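Morning - adenosine monophosphate inputs below, output right after.
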Amino acid sequence: MSDTASPAPLKLFNSLTRSLETFEPIHPGTEGDANDPPEARVYSCGPTVYNYQHVGNMRAYVFADTLGRVLSFKGYKLSHVINITDVGHLTSDADAGDDKMEKAASREGKSAWDIARHYQAVFEADLARLNIRKPQHPRATDYVAAMIAWGKAIEDKHCYRLDGGLYFDVTTVPDYGRLARANTDEGEGRIESVEGKRHAADFAIWRTTPPGETRQMEWDSPWGRGAPGWHIECSVMSAELLGHPFDIHTGGIDHREIHHPNEIAQNQAHACGPDSGARIWMHNNFLIDRRGKMSKSSGDFLTLQALVDRGFHPLAFRMLCLQAHYRSELEFSWEGLAAALVRLKRLVMAIDVLKSRHAELVTASIAQPETAARGEIWTLKQVQGDDEIMAGFRSQVDGIDKTISDDLNTAVALVTLDTVLSIKGATLGPALKFVDAVDSLLGLNLATLARADLRIRPITATITEPEIEAALAARKEARAAKDFARSDALRDELAAQGVEVMDGDPLGWDWKLEA
Ligand code: AMP
Ligand code: ZN
């Protein structure tokens, strides 16, 4: 294996420097010591659990999961945290407006705690449906004592008190807002003012409950009974769970403007130095629709469940995300999602064909190809150490490593998958293994996804299976008789019932009825 290409350096786009940087882990481990592997520690800002997540939010977690998979593939032991914001996030990112949790509680007539538990459970189920590996999910409310301790530590040098609580003075740290690249003037226009703040960009570390009011979620603190600000939770939880400095902090690009600059300011204050707390700050771009950025405040936002209700498998949404670079805006459309589903189907079908041809060849005495890391992430080392894979697909192995190391170019990695599946005369066992390795990187679950899984009945469909079969047979006759007007009319009728007829597609129609 001496002629194996050396691994491509992993390049990631760091929003702090606005440039591609080679990933150098803070904990490189000891070469050759399995007990001391190189580590990658990643923190992703998680959901505020006051409502369902929309598919734009889920794009942020598909991105974070893809990053995690790539780090695992490159041989790093991954520690990944996605926090759960169950307290403290106001309707404006900048500490004005209502508390999102309390507002949801009065909207739904439940306690803020019940709201948080409910939406956290839905969020975790959505992560699983998107095949996002389970990270750690700490809740902000379990870290309030640590947040108070952090506030006490930075209070004297960096904070001031107002009736509303303890505020952070952004001029007390060097270079505030360098992540946003907007000097504070540019940011100021977007920040709602709070009476008495020294600078528009100053933000709350602690929000004291106004006299005469009570909040459902409140704690005692040196600054009165109240609740922590939103930004402090991510500084505290990343420090507690990953240690500062850690390797990579992720979030949606909106966080580059206020939330992450504020986290950095708190981290600098706490460390009494210029260190931002994380070495690399990465941001996914927005999922947009025709009205612009998908957001919860617009009310009628799309959830993953809404996609499923329309007959789309959740992994079609993952495919849609992977087809675009995470730093590009991605426009959501039903047509785009339908195309992503078709692409996923074609992959599943091609793998099915490969599997059945392989099964025919394999005699009882020869084992099925064992996926070295079934259900887990293959590492590049494992792939390069597999002589069979290397004999058949050396250039594709090098290609996928370069591609994915180039700031997670998943769109091109998908093309490699297509290429491998279309190589005529490829040795089947190694081809299946290699596909499994690439899939473990992309997370499309191709190893276990079956064609039938991808047929999902739209929630509004009322047609029965015999009715579908009858309509399809009638349409076939009409086509044979070159009565295209009738054949088109039948296709339209079926489409209105959520049955998509795809001529020339062996899947025929798109969904199955429940038994
Ligand atoms: P939130 O629950 O609003 O705190 O958002 C959770 C995550 O989703 C954050 O990382 C946001 O930056 C990200 N996010 C919000 N809207 C979008 C969008 N339309 N597209 C992509 N990411 C988004
Ligand atoms: Zn955060």
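Note: The radius of gyration is 26 Å.

O.
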